[in-house]
Amino acid sequence: MNSQLKQSGFGLLEVLITLVLTAIGVLGMVAMQSKSIQYTQQSINRNTAATLASDLMETLRGNRDDIYDAQAKLRSDSPYFKKAGADFAAAEEDCSNLDNECPKAQLQAWKNRAQQQLPGVTDAFIKKEFHICISQAASGCAATGSAIEIRVAWLGRTEECEPNASGEPVCSYILRAEI
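^ thats the sequence. predicted structure below, dont judge the formating
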């Protein structure tokens, strides 16, 4: 008679424990997925900034006459350079952004691409956070030097970027190279 009273299969308690453990696992995967999407977006922005900086460096390499003086030293008055806190110069009239004779038009086209491709990049933001300048070693902009530094920035998330003077989380990419 005892053999007929035996139960087989799962009880209600075992099923509930299994459901709780499965739910915890699924919630963990969902949290990982959302973090993965955030990190992917940050990676896309950094890659875009690197591409923009590289494109501008190649433009500068293609226009050495506007960057170097007769003694093969970088010209601080080159139309391609922009100090932090300064606006990009207005484009020359009757110039194409592909015309090597029009460096300001080329810079305006590059600036427009940066505004379209990076989050939070406005004219005021570019004025404050972007620069293209002569650099010495790894110390940023200088009056003299043999390298060119390009800083590209965008608005990111607080946990990923450093706050600027206004408290905005600013991410940046700096490319420094000798031409």
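The longest strand covers residues 147-155.
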